[in-house]
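F.,

This is the one I mentioned.
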């Protein structure tokens, strides 16, 4: 039975990933900061008798990551598949976001993933097999205010993943980047909330998320893509997920940098008209 470790498994995409692998017959180590809050996961494991164990692990802590990884290695052997899902989705303008929160996003979204990667690679390299899947976002390919900090962290993880893929391929270790669009998660619902920012882009992004979530895309779709990649022999690096993911990426690629900046700096009515024209979505509310 192959072994999978999933970070940030208490809710949303992470929860669905853990369940998808468990239902497919993998031995799953579902990690999270506070297992006592993961009631849905715990109840589902019991109800379906899934091969999933829950572990307290803080990806921001060297000590915490090492302790759990060492414990699993000693008792169960090397991890075959690592899914770096744990992340923070704070949004806010560059001016208004406190520097401490800016650092916190990078600590989890970037360094947390790196800690876990460094913990599993030695055994994968020794056994000459393994799979590392890093969940970034469409925001790892394009950036829009007020998601500058979040995007920066996901851009960083994409760069690390691309370099890592080059390093470990000779050891038969596959690396995949999964890039969800707007998914029905707590983070997406938080972004769609009303904004008190002095910058109009914050309200516009909230309205865009609000409109998109009227026809929500389930987190289970992301889990299905991750399981599909893990079970394949594909070396394809990037995997956009969701009905809006690739269209958003292509939308950005169709413009120069200056056109992209100008598009998001349009007067209010022109901006809403552009979204309606390009995506058939009325984001006004």
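My design for it:
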């Amino acid at each position: 039975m192959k072994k999978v470790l999933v970070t940030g498994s208490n809710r949303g995409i992470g929860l669905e990933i853990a369940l998808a692998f468990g239902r497919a017959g993998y031995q799953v180590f579902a990690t999270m900061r506070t297992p006592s809050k993961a009631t849905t996961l715990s109840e589902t494991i019991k109800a379906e008798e899934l091969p999933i164990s829950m572990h307290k692990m803080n990806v921001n802590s060297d000590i915490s990551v090492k302790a759990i990884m060492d414990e699993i290695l000693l008792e169960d052997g090397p991890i075959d598949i690592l899914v770096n899902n744990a992340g923070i989705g704070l949004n806010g303008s560059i001016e208004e976001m406190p520097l401490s929160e800016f650092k916190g996003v990078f600590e989890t979204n970037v360094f947390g993933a790196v800690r876990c990667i460094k913990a599993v690679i030695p055994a994968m390299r020794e056994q000459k097999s393994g799979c590392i899947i890093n969940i970034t976002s469409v925001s790892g390919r394009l950036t829009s205010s007020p998601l500058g900090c979040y995007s920066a962290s996901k851009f960083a993880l994409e760069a690390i993943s691309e370099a890592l893929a080059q390093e470990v391929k000779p050891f038969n270790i596959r690396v995949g980047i999964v890039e969800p669009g707007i998914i029905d998660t707590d983070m997406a619902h938080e972004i769609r909330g009303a904004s008190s920012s002095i910058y109009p882009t914050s309200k516009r992004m909230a309205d865009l998320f609000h409109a998109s979530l009227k026809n929500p895309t389930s987190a289970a779709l992301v889990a299905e893509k991750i399981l599909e990649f893990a079970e394949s022999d594909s070396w394809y690096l990037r995997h956009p997920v969701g009905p809006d993911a690739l269209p958003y990426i292509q939308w950005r690629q169709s413009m120069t940098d200056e056109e992209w900046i100008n598009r998001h700096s349009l007067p209010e009515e022109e901006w809403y008209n552009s979204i309606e024209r390009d995506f058939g979505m009325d984001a006004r509310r």
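The beta strands are 3-6, 27-32, 52-56, 81-84, 130-135, 173-180, 238-241.

Talk soon.
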